[in-house]
Amino acid sequence: MSQQMPYQPYPYGYEMYPSAQFPYGMQQQQPQLVPMQPSGALIPGTPYTPGQVMEESYIENILRMNRGKVITVYQTFENNSQWNAKIFRGVLETAGRDHIILSDPQTGKRYLLLMVNTDYITADEELNYIPPSLPQGVR
């Protein structure tokens, strides 16, 4: 009865079989290709209109579609003796996976805010948003 092991028995991709190239029994296996997981990047091959590709619905992508708009970011900070919550309002410059950059047009000051501290975000105007498309047959 032949059984396949569900895990890699030897660490670092080596097997214990001697050969002329690896006389001590350490043969390197070919690396397995694992499909990359989405990282907030564009969805490959999902056309929205001719020539465009739709973005996945991650917070940073939604924020990037709304650059230049005035937003309010509500954040909380644990274990802070001076303040545990702050509100930042300004023009959305850009956003990344772990940060938001706002600028205050009155003072010219820029804020680099961490997403980990963000509770929620509001905007006074309508936000640009393209809902993600679901595969056919899924509702």
Low-confidence stretches: 40-46
Largest sheet: 5 strands, antiparallel
Report the structural category. mainly beta
- The overall average pLDDT, rounded, is 75
What Rg is obtained from the alpha carbons, in whole angstroms? 24 Å
Strand order of the largest sheet: 8-7-6-5-9
Describe the protein's architecture and organization.
With 139 residues, the protein is mostly beta strands. Helix content is 4%, strand content 35%. It has one helix at residues 59-64, and strands at 14-16, 26-28, 42-47, 53-55, 70-76, 85-95, 99-103, 110-114, 118-123. The longest helix has 6 residues, at 59-64.
Task: Detail the topology: elements first, then pairings.
Layout: E1 14-16, E2 26-28, E3 42-47, E4 53-55, H1 59-64, E5 70-76, E6 85-95, E7 99-103, E8 110-114, E9 118-123
Antiparallel strand pairs: 1-2, 3-4, 5-6, 5-9, 6-7, 7-8
Tag the structure with descriptive keywords.
mainly beta; 1 helix; 9 strands; 4% helix
Overview in brief:
This protein is mainly β and 139 residues long.
